[in-house]
Amino acid sequence: MPDHPGDFDQCLTQLAALLAEQGHRVTRVFEAACDAVFSRDIAAARKAVDDDDEIDRVDVAIEQQAVALLTEAVHRAKPLTAGQLRRLLTIVKINNELERAADAATAIASEAPVLAEMDSPLPDTLRVLTNSVAGILRDVTRSFEREDPRLAKLALDAEDTVEAFKGQLLRDAERRIGAGEMAVDFAFAMHDLANQCERIADHATNIAEQVIYATTGAIVRHTDAGWIELPRPGTGDRA
């Protein structure tokens, strides 16, 4: 815990590095879960689920360290700048989003045994969907790691692509069920996978919002017309 005025920033930097590695870890678990589903590899799916234990452990460690850091600052009556407080709150919020994204990834891995009992090939649209989500996860992690709001905004824009691929996937499934080309159980599995992918994308865009807030002080919200940035007077600096 910080003993000198500059130690708080040093501890924040160390905590941010731990969180960035957590982001990469979650991305790897998601990619492993998707690969297990496409290959119908039950052993690989189980490993992806087991790897979530490390994510849970780090999640708790980051939260505990963040609380201890803030408690120590209060105990020492050390005033924090707006930038320091924003960064600490961002770390806590992103940590929570990553843990929830990892839960969705393990839910995807859990579909592997179900799909292993089905002969129907997985549609190419699903692979495009999973690749898009993996790309968003990588981008938001890098945007936090590099404190890059531009990259975070690119991740926000990519969410519409995920929604479009999900819609196409479900429409194709509905058409194929009607034509007798797809079993209902298989369609339900596709629906579950698409929902989990969309859920992960939602968590990733929440992370992107937090990166933008931490680095610029602006609040980003989604509207029917797209993402809009709401400036906050007096908080645009990073001091």
Structure description:
This protein has 239 residues and is mainly α. It has one domain: Up-down Bundle (Methane Monooxygenase Hydroxylase, Chain G, domain 1). The chain is 78% helix and 4% strand. It has seven helices and two strands; from the N terminus they run αααααααββ. Strands 1-2 form a two-stranded antiparallel sheet. Strand 1 and strand 2 form a beta hairpin. Helix 5 runs antiparallel to helix 6, helix 5 runs parallel beside helix 7 and helix 6 runs antiparallel to helix 7. The longest helix is centred in the first third of the chain and has 34 residues. The N terminus and C terminus are likely disordered.
Short account of what is shown:
The chain is mostly helical and 239 residues long.
Features:
239 residues, mainly alpha, Methane Monooxygenase Hydroxylase, Chain G, domain 1, two-stranded antiparallel ribbon, 4% strand, elongated, disordered N terminus, disordered C terminus
Rg for CA atoms: 20 Å
| Known CATH architecture | Up-down Bundle
CATH superfamily: Phosphate transport system protein phou homolog 2, domain 2
- Provide the CATH top-level class: Mainly Alpha
Question: What's the helix-strand series?
Answer: HHHHHHHEE
Quote the CATH topology: Methane Monooxygenase Hydroxylase, Chain G, domain 1
Q: What does the main sheet amount to?
A: 2 strands, antiparallel
Number of strands: 2
Q: How would you describe the oligomerization state of the chains in this entry?
A: single chain
Give the mean pLDDT. 89
